[in-house]
Amino acid sequence: MTDDERLARVALARIVEPGDEVGGRWLRQYGARKTLQRLTTEGEPLPWVTPKRWEALRARAAHIRPKRDLEEAAAAGVRFLVPGDGEWPGQLDDLGDGRPVGLWVRGTANVRMWALRSVAVVGARACTEYGAHMAAALGAGLAERGWVVVSGGAYGVDGAAHRGVLGVGGATVAVLACGVDRPYPRGHVQLIGRIAEQGLVVGELPPGEHPTPSRFILRNRVIAALTRGTVVVEAAHRSGALVTARAAQRLGRFTMGVPGPATSALSAGVHDLLRGEAVLVSDAAEVVELVGDMGELAPDRRGPVLPRDLLEPGARQVLAALPGRGAAPPDEIARGAGTTVDDAVGRLYELRALGYVERHGDGWKLTRQAMISVSPDRRSG
Questions:
Q1: 90-291: which CATH topology?
Q2: Contact assessment for residue 211 and residue 220, using Cβ atoms and an 8 Å cutoff
């Protein structure tokens, strides 16, 4: 991309709102320099906009200072990326005409390389202790497995996920809905500063720009596109995190949800996702199994191995045939176990040696050790 085209994109980043698909069509059809020229000179309006919208864009164009924007960005340690740069994350191209005009980046890591192995963790701002714990655990677990965690730098789940990553020395990216030189929210200035030092802070808006409700919503499409999949940890029915998840689904990315109490309004949105195409996950290993490479499997989930699980099948059958209370003769035990009396007697002596049964006259009964290891139903029966 030529210097003129790059400088034109810097200017357009201040004129066109994030996600403006009409602006994206202009860029695709006319290029950045010609689009800017039409916006800054008298003449016929560009297509696909109303006269009112055209005048509003022209008013913004009258106040652009692209060279000054680049100078202020450089002074703040911020660089500007455009499509075609070696560091440009190609996943953003999946947004089509809604693709960012460019990306403002704080931090030294390579955005493209980090995006190739990244997962978004998003959720409620006013999260519960459970939500904060799960977000931090997911962030730390993903980082320890070599994954980059992307979130929005907000209060609640976002902040917990970022802190979980930072706590284990991992890689994290905050995608902001404002200029990356003026972090928002104010209470996260230190956190976002740490992210810039240890990871990356990125955004579509030029230096000094402030967030608005619509910019928060549109920012979420970048989080979804930048990553292989999105995990939602706590989200009410009306939640920006659900916007991110639905954007991920439209883009063909994996969508995952962490379940919560069925009575919690903060988990209601997640549960709706899980009733659809989202996949339930409970830890980082399950996330990686879904978004990772072949063979990156989560461990099998099993209950504890009990001593009786180690018995031979025939011995387990005989043990199961003994009554919960009192003694039984060998022939009754053999019938219950579906075997011969001789086989049952042999198994009973094996079980006695292991401490499971004891002989009482002509009958056999469970020992106290065996009674503890059997189910409550048998102990009562």
A1: Rossmann fold (3.40.50)
A2: no
The CB-side HSE value for 134 (13 A sphere, CA atoms) comes to 23
- Per-residue pLDDT reduced to its tens digit, 63-110: 999 999 999 999 999 999 999 999 999 999 999 999 999 999 999 999
CATH class of 307-380: mainly alpha
| pTM of the model as a whole | 0.83
SS3 content of the chain, % helix, strand, coil (to 5): 50, 15, 35
Residue 216 contacts residue 177 (beta carbons within 8 Å): yes
How far apart CA 364 and CA 358 sit, in angstroms, is 6
Which residue from 185, 187, 182 is spatially nearest to 208, judged by alpha carbons? Answer: 182
Non-local (6+) Cβ contacts of 307 within 8 A are 373
Q: Which of 122, 157, 127, 164 is nearest to 142 (CA)?
A: 164
Separation CA 271–CA 233 (nearest Å)? 10
Q: Where are the domains of the chain?
A: 3-65, 90-291, 307-380
Q: What is the pLDDT of residue 324?
A: 84
